[in-house]
């Protein structure tokens, strides 16, 4: 799978791959290439490195410092939640319900689940509520007609933005999915709110624009997903320059034990059988392809300022170690725990404090009962997504957002049985290849959103053909 991404100045002279020669079962890769991605950046015998000009300053450095006098509220910490009816939003509200002395909700935004949103309003009594789907405003008001408390209700994208920048909130939980979360996150940053980051597109697509903005407004971007929370927890107290390497752990997904030659025959139902837990369809497929981990590599680069040569992936089937770091003296630090998204969300909300958790609702890890932890290198032939992610990351600019959007569309097409499992990789790579001519290295927010939409449209135009995927004729 001849990946070849160089610096942006060389980008027009190269190709992601010769799609006519793409045959997953026959792909031959450089011997010995494992999760050490240093070999993923070799093109035409030339090592690829991220130049200083390509790499925005990290939103969060390799040390965590609490500024004097930072706390500006009395009583429970006021938070807003964008995407309150989704998985991240509901788990955040579980934490608020269990810790009413620590947190309070001042604003909620949801997409279209009005019934659940109305229940949340009655329970948490926010000051402001937004419904992205404007046609459902009347339905929400009806659902709250008999409530003894009625918040201000706003509609549409602008309403979601108002929730994100609510004047009373200190931290905004960005649980909304996709590029729809970018504008509210930008509004929150411009309003000086800290970000509890659960929206991947904020950094994967928006990193080149969002990070300088976060520095300008002196806000913290605190990761709410388990892998990046693990890294964040491990770097606490490290002196400047002490971080040497980031090691992202991956479950390996549904096909981690399946011989690679059988991948051509797998079906949607097979990809949705995660060996460890039940999740949504999209993230479960991403776990099977390992695109979830490739995207996390890009996030880690933006969050911690680490070069792609210093970010690695390792398969850890038990999913107990959520990620690790290596320090300059070769010490390795890890964060362990049962797989439970509430823990990283809790730490994101409570940082720099640690909040006591009941053993009833938060089971404690017992390593003796667990028995053993195992690790192995990911198979490069089984997971071409690693090559794609590292290559897109090194290209920088709008390429990472195009990668993410193309993958999202490809997974949707696979779930709808319009393409095969192996076609997911082809769709993503062909879309990234097409984007090389229009790559923007320092994009505006509008350009980021434009190319997200473009990538989805282009990916959806790709149709199966005997020699590989090709754009559909118009």
From TrEMBL:
Its BP terms in the Gene Ontology are: isopentenyl diphosphate biosynthetic process, methylerythritol 4-phosphate pathway involved in terpenoid biosynthetic process
Cofactor(s) in the UniProt record: Mn(2+); Mg(2+)
- Similarity-based family: Belongs to the DXR family.
Reaction(s) catalysed by this chain, per the record, are:
2-C-methyl-D-erythritol 4-phosphate + NADP(+) = 1-deoxy-D-xylulose 5-phosphate + NADPH + H(+)
- The answer to whether the entry has keyword RNA-binding is no
Which Gene Ontology MF annotations are present?
Answer: 1-deoxy-D-xylulose-5-phosphate reductoisomerase activity; isomerase activity; manganese ion binding; NADPH binding
Q: Where is the 1-deoxy-D-xylulose 5-phosphate reductoisomerase C-terminal domain?
A: 221-304
Question: Organism classification, top ranks?
Answer: Eukaryota, Viridiplantae, Streptophyta, Embryophyta, Tracheophyta
* Entry keyword set: Chloroplast, Isomerase, Isoprene biosynthesis, Manganese, Metal-binding, NADP, Oxidoreductase, Plastid, Transit peptide
Q: Which residues form the 1-deoxy-D-xylulose 5-phosphate reductoisomerase N-terminal domain?
A: 79-207
Keyword Coiled coil (UniProt): no
Query: Which pathway features in its UniProt record?
Result: Isoprenoid biosynthesis; isopentenyl diphosphate biosynthesis via DXP pathway; isopentenyl diphosphate from 1-deoxy-D-xylulose 5-phosphate: step 1/6
Q: Where is it found, in Gene Ontology cellular component terms?
A: chloroplast
Primary location = plastid
Q: Which residues form the DXP reductoisomerase C-terminal domain?
A: 336-457
Q: Where in the cell is it found?
A: Plastid, Chloroplast
Q: What is its EC number?
A: 1.1.1.267
Full protein name: 1-deoxy-D-xylulose-5-phosphate reductoisomerase
């Amino acid at each position: 799978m001849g990946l070849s991404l160089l610096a942006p100045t060389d980008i027009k002279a190269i190709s992601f791959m010769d799609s006519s020669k793409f045959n997953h079962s026959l792909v031959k890769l450089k011997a010995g290439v494992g999760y050490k991605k240093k070999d993923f950046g070799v093109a035409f015998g030339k090592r690829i490195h991220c130049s200083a000009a390509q790499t925005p300053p990290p939103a969060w450095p390799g040390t965590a410092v609490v500024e004097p006098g930072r706390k500006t509220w009395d009583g429970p910490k006021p938070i807003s939640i964008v995407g309150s009816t989704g998985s991240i939003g509901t788990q955040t509200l579980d934490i608020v319900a269990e810790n009413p002395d620590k947190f309070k909700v001042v604003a909620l935004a949801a997409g279209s689940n009005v019934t659940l949103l109305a229940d949340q309003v009655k329970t948490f009594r926010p000051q402001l509520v937004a419904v992205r789907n404007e046609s459902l405003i009347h339905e929400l008001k009806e659902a709250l007609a008999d409530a003894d408390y009625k918040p201000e209700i706003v509609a549409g994208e602008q309403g979601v933005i108002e929730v994100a920048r609510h004047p009373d909130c200190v931290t905004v939980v960005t649980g909304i999915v996709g590029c729809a979360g970018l504008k509210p996150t930008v509004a929150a940053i411009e309003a000086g709110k800290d970000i509890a980051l659960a929206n991947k597109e904020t950094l994967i697509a928006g990193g080149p624009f969002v990070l300088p903005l976060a520095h300008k407004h002196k806000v913290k971007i605190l990761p709410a997903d388990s892998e990046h929370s693990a890294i964040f927890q491990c770097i606490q107290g490290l002196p400047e320059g002490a971080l040497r390497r980031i090691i992202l752990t991956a479950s390996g997904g549904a096909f981690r034990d399946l011989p690679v030659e059988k991948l051509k025959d797998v079906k949607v139902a097979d990809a949705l059988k995660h060996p460890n837990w039940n999740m949504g369809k999209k993230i479960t497929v991403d776990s099977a392809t390992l695109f979830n981990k490739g995207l996390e590599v890009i996030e880690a680069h933006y969050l911690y300022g680490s070069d792609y040569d210093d970010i690695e992936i390792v398969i850890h089937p038990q999913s107990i170690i959520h990620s690790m770091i290596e320090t300059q003296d070769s010490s390795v630090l890890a964060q362990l725990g049962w797989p439970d998204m509430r823990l990283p969300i809790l730490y994101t909300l409570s940082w720099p404090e640690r909040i006591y958790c009941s053993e009833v609702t938060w089971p404690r890890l017992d390593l003796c009962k667990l028995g053993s932890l195992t690790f192995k290198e990911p198979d490069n032939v089984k997971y071409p997504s690693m090559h794609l992610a590292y290559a897109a990351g090194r290209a920088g600019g709008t390429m990472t957002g195009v990668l993410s959007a193309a993958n999202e569309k490809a997974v949707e097409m696979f779930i709808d049985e319009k393409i095969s499992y192996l076609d997911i990789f082809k769709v993503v790579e062909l879309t990234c290849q097409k984007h090389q001519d229009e790559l923007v290295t320092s994009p505006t927010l509008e350009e980021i959103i434009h190319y997200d939409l473009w990538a989805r449209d282009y990916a959806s135009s790709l149709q199966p053909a005997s020699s590989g995927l090709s754009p559909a004729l118009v």
